[in-house]
Amino acid sequence: MKIVLDTEVCKKEGKDVDVALYLISLLCGSKITVNTFEKARQQRLLMFEQMYDLRKPFPEYVSLNVTGEHIVESLMASSVNVSSEERCTQLAEKLREIFPAGKKPGYAYTWRDSVSCIADRLKKFFMKYGEYTDEQIIEATKAYVASFNGNYTYMQLLKYFIWKNKVTGEEVVRGRVVGEVERQSQLAAWIEDTPEKSTSADWDISLR
Asked: What residue numbers bound the domain in which 25 lies?
């Protein structure tokens, strides 16, 4: 059974998303109970803004941590055709050509990563930040790389340039992950700040 939940439709219909998810869980034969929360806590998929009383089944200040959010995004991306697989793969190949080859100095990670990794990153980018044209994304990426003038010391890896989660104050306290996640995307920022008509020809020359 494949179920796609449009949260905007829920809002328009005056239905709470949590109620809709609860009904879906019943339809799939898996009730949401106190044990559901406890499973997520034990698997370290949650973060808590403050310590909570273990005697209370559902703490008030709880949210997904990086791992939990990644799992949800992967499930949503596989269920919702935000942008076609072929488009994301082709766009990933073009973006990888813009970034330098090899590993970032002092790090074990490569600048470009694999095509499949970047394609997956793009799919989630569209889900998080909305639709942009391929031209907008390519031009913004060229502008970002060119802005470093060949000195890439402080340049982000391609996958993190597209988007990343910045975790502040994360720590494990008595088996609970405490911290705060801030979502960031240099790609989205550069798209907003990059004029549609730009001197892309100059960037092409410098990147060859």
From this structure: 1-32
27 φ, ψ (degrees, to nearest 5): -60, -35
Q: Is 37 a member of any domain? A: no
At 193, which amino acid appears? D
Residue with tokens 């990153």: 121
For residues 162 and 63, membership in a common domain is answered with: yes
Listed in sequence order, the residues at least 6 apart from 110 whose beta carbon sits closer than 8 Å to its beta carbon are 101, 102, 103, 104, 157
Closest CA to 98 of 141, 38, 54: 141
Q: Based on the structure, what is the number of domains in the chain?
A: 2
Tens digits of residue pLDDT in 84-120: 788 999 999 999 999 999 999 989 999 999 999 999 8
pTM value is 0.61
* Orientation angle between helical segments 85-98 and 115-129, nearest 10 degrees: 110
